Amino acid sequence: MWFLLLLLYIAHIELVYLQGDVNRLILRNKNGRNPCEGHIEIYHNGVQGYVGDKYWSNKTEEVVCRSTHCGSPESRDHSTDVLKPKGSKVWLNELKCEGNESQLWNCKNPGWGVSKCYRDTIKWIKCSNEINIMLEGYECAGMVKYSSVNERGYFCSNNWGNDQANRLCKNLGCGESKEIPKKEWMDFSQIKTSKMMMIDCSGLNETNLWQCAAQKEKQKCETPATVICTGFMRLQLKGDEASVCSGMLEKEEDGGWKPVDSSSKSTPDVWCKQMDCGTNVSNSFKGRTHHLECSDKVQVVLKDSRKISKCYGEVHIQVNGSDYPVCGSSWDLKTAGVVCKELKCGAVVDQYTRSGTQSGIMDNVECTGNESSLWHCRGKHNKNAFQCPKKAFVVCAESVKVRLADGPGRCAGRVEIEHEGKWKRVSSEKWEAVNSNIICNELDCGGARSGNSETFSEGSAEFLTKSVSCSSGASRIHECIKASTSSSRPENSMMITCEGHKVVFLNNTCSGMVGIQHGSKTYWLSGSNNTWNQESAHTVCKQMQCGDAYPYEYIPSADMKRNVWQESYNCYPNNTSLFDCKKNKTLPSDHNDSIAVVKCSGAISVNLTNGCWGTVNVCVGGKCGGVCKDSWTKEKSVMLCKDIGCGNKILSSSQKNEAVPIVRSLHTTTHTTNLSQCNFIKNDEYGPNVNFRCELASVICSDSVKARISASRHKCSGNVEVHYEGTWLPVCSDALKDQKTQNAICEEVNCGHAVKQLNYFGPTSKIKNDITQIQCSNSDIKSLTECDIVSEKHGDCPLAGLQCSNWSKMELKFDGACSGAVFAHSETGRNAVSIEGWTKTEMDKLCNNLECGNLKSNRTYVSDQEQSQTLPSQKQQKEQLWIECQDEPKVTLSKKCGGEVRMNNIRVCSSNWNLDYSHMVCQQQDCSNAINFTIKTTTITQDKSHHVSCEGYHHRLGQCSRYEDNCDGGLVSVFCVGSVKVNTTEKCGGVIQVNYINDKWEEVCHQTSNDHLNKLLCKELGCGDPRDKKPQKKQKSNRKKSKVTLETALNCTKDHKDIKYCVNRLRCDTEKPAEIYCEGYVDIIDKDKPQSTPVVPIILGVGFLLFLVILIVVFVRVYIAKKGKKSMNVPSRMFSRQEPDLEFDSGDYEDVTNKANEMEDFSRGRFRSEAEVIMESDARSTSSLPYDDIDEVVETLPLTSQASGGRYIHDGALDQSSGKF
User: What is its membrane topology (predicted)?
Assistant: First the structure.
């Protein structure tokens, strides 16, 4: 805040000062040459006047000379006094000066215009100073400098204007003022130690600038006054590229530059100094022009990262071997254009400034645009370096180039523009066709082809941050680069194919006829001996990445004469492309008679890393590697799968593999029948150390896909899995909904046709992907290789399985879960399995499949069951296979007939669990049925648990399919009928309670009356039959009952004979749980119980007795108070409050209760009367009374007592702290 106030204060002072002095004094003479000699003029409030000579003295002249910065007065001749104009004003007269006054009007005087002066002459004085005003810097341009006998300094730029500049230029013989530069265009560093003279010419008709010298205290000055007069001759040197301070001398004239002829009166040293080029070294005059060489060696260069760059970079000045950046304080397009022109770099494409802290020697540069060098533009040229807050940067047209990269020729590929020394990609966003045409024309490739371009590698270079937008009149791409940038992040590179694009191909891999495809047409290279030679053959093989050529060949063109390419080439060993070879100007006479044929030494192959799927693998030049995915197409995938015999369809790949490719892209022609015939763009074409990485292309051919039904214990029934990219993936149920898909899978695994879709049963897949889509077009498809399949990352899709018509499931009967006669279940029913043909290995496998361990023993079981025809080596007979496996699963509950289910001491998960499984467990535990609910505990555990799935023919939990895995849905607890207990809250009646879970008695939901249920319940209680009528109930409470939530019900049908089987889990909200009253129940009113004593009369009696005691105590205290009044001698304090007389009528209960204030005081250990003060001595005597005396006093009290008002009682009459009298 204080800083702002200071600024306001300074601004106010400055404003007042700029308004001009109210009073001014000057010395005026006719010629105006010496501002320190002449008659005195005074300006008062802007009005001119003179000074009278009454009381004039030498001290008066001392004040005048000092106030005009003219030194001291010299001896004067009175004859030099001059006449004053008639009728002129005399402002001051009768001056009496002491000689030390700062201004003449500070001398003692009568006032402004007060004293009359009738003399017609005025004093002429001469002061000692001789003032010289000049321009420092150049002839007729520079800083305004003054000098006198004892002082020299500069005029301040404050209040410096065109009038003053014009006056100075005229006085110096330099014409008029041409310009007053606003920026620091000269070295002002020397003024820091120089005196600065403020001027103020406002209101003056001055003839000399010294007359404007400020007569107030000096104001702060930042810069000196400067001017460029019309007489200033601006110079430059032109023609020497080694130094801008050497060459032909030119002067600016009429907006252009002309040679300086011999008529110039200046000297070479002055010229060199004016151009900041040091001193003259040599000077010659040739052909009416001066050729000048100055001592300084100065060059303008561009730098990028402190290295010399061509046509772009930070602008630097090299002076005598030292390098300095050009500061960018006033950097603009016109100034940047001078740099580009000077360096022969074309037009300006871009110019801006960069922040920096380096030291520079040139700033505030302003060019007209036609200078020969930046050094010759007007600007601050300092010998001593100073800090640059900003550095100038320029991009010239010759540094901007364009190319089509990663294409099979220079006329097709990804658009890249070299900008600021780096090749940068260009975004395809908002790209216009005119841009493509400009690029193709600049590359001499004709116009751009219409339609979509071929696909090339996206590349990895950074994107150009400038936008590219060409106008119809543009001829080169640098004219299209705009400063505006897109806010969105570029995603795709722009790719172009020009009309001039053509490629060489061979009709076989690394051998065959040499063809040229240009657009949609195909041509063949001439095999004429005059043009087709070994060097040309080598070039073709190198271009096709096929090594060197064997001896070249040719074949007659026959009927292909019209398709012979009408160009011939003369190739050299360093050529890598046929089109880089020198064209022959004329064609030989036999040009169309033969076609060039070549056989190369190299070989190329394209395959997949994993047979029929994997990363695309190209082997070329003895090395193998991948191809960039962004240049790969679906058509190339189809061609590759056919080439390697892996089917005609391709599937999408989820693989992402980033690495250094061996090939960035490969390009086909209309004659390509195998990918090995393509044009390959190898990665090492950009240098062996190029750190280029990309995501590699991968392909899945249809023949790599296989299906399976994964359940090991069943045949043709279980989870469906698809072998995809080398991994068996589960299948989402939506992908299996279509019947054609189901049948294709069953057919592929030789399981007949599909019967039904199954829920997935198995451990959670650890694989990241699922098969989410399978689409089979035809109903007669026999394999998934003909279907479209999609694999995606894990989602929320439920997985599924299939049961095919040839399904078969094994079961052991007549004994435990892992021992018994072997039966097979299939689509045709259940069949006994014959013992014929079974080996120990097969029986071991069966035990393992049934999760029963290894085989323990086997025997023959004589059966009259129908034998299965589906198992190995079975015949129609009645000898059935019986096996006993080593492991018999043990199923237990954590408590008798209830609790947590465990199998082999491992808990069971609730996933896939149902009530039938609960019944199976309870029956297996000899606990009858299960109650119709299952508790799923949510205990978090890292231990794995069993997940089970049972078939309808299973009778033991151990027979069911199972696996171990983490449990997310909760663990299973089952409660059986064998654990149920029933009771009532009273003997043979009351609220019904059931105990069947965790030894907890639960009340039962109230339901409609059911005679059968009531009979079963009373029977269970051993209380006979239910009562016909409900017993008399206890008196109901008026309190509203709140609802409670119950979770148990009794649901019995006429078929139930045991109430325990009626227990059901049912949630209800009720105010009254279910009740039952049987014949053995005894009513409450019949019970011989003593009557309870009435409570209300007792409470009233005790209250009345307590009131009487309080009343007696009050009478006693009133009596004592009256007694104290009678014995009082001196009143000490009087209360202002008076209370009415107190009356007590015997036997009047209401009157007594109205004296609540008296009882309150008593309860607090004190009482009140009308005069509430007792003498301290009386209080002590009163309080010393024994309790017996108090009783006597109470006995003598009358039934009525009247207290008189207006009494005084001494402080401390009552000792309230002790509570005694």
Answer: Single-pass membrane protein
**Residue 1059 φ/ψ region, left for φ over 0, alpha for ψ in the -120 to 50 degree band, beta for the rest:** alpha
Which single residue is written with the structure tokens 């060199």?
272
Write the CB contacts of 122 (distance below 8 Å, at least 6 apart in sequence): 39, 40, 50, 51, 52, 53, 81, 82, 83, 84
Q: Which of 436, 440, 335, 465 is nearest to 394 (CA)?
A: 335
pLDDT at 186: 81
755-771 per-position pLDDT tens digit: 999 999 988 777 778 89
DSSP state of 834: B
| Residue 414, strand partner residues | 405, 495
In the predicted structure, residue 600 carries a pLDDT above the cut 80:
yes
Measured from the Cβ of residue 563, the count of other Cβ atoms closer than 10 Å reads: 15
Token pair recorded at residue 423? 């090749």
Angle at 315 between CA 309 and CA 316, to 5 degrees: 90
Could you give the 3-state DSSP secondary structure of residue 549?
Answer: strand
What tokens were used for 1170?
Answer: 């009308």
- DSSP 3-state assignment of 102? coil
Tokens of 399: 């540094």
Nearest to 800 by CA among 715, 717, 724, 731: 731
Q: How far apart are CA 112 and CA 115, in angstroms?
A: 8
| Closest CA relative to residue 846, chosen from 829, 864, 871 | 871
Burial 1169-1197 (b: 16+ CB within 10 A, else e): bbbbbbbeebbeebbeeeeeebeebeeee
Of 663, 659, 691, residue with least CA distance to 678 = 663
Who has greater pLDDT, 960 or 1091?
960
| Contact assessment for residue 156 and residue 224, using Cβ atoms and an 8 Å cutoff | yes
Which residue, chain included where needed, has tokens 């009157």? 1151
Region class of 899: left (phi > 0), else alpha (psi between -120 and 50), else beta: left
Mean pLDDT, the chain, rounded, equals 83
Give pLDDT tens digits for 962-1000: 999 988 888 999 999 999 999 999 999 999 999 988 788
Sequence-ordered list of residues with C-beta below 8 angstroms from that of 410, at least 6 positions apart, any chain: 403, 404, 443, 445, 579
Tell me: the pLDDT tens digits for 258-276? 998 876 778 899 999 999 9
At residue 824 the predicted structure's pLDDT band, cuts being 50, 70 and 90, is very high
Among 1111, 1097, 1103, which residue's Cα sits nearest to residue 1153?
A: 1111
Cα–Cα distance measured from residue 1158 to residue 1152, given in angstroms and rounded to the nearest whole number: 10
User: Above 80 in pLDDT, residue 1134?
Assistant: no
Q: How many CB atoms lie within 10 A of CB 685?
A: 13
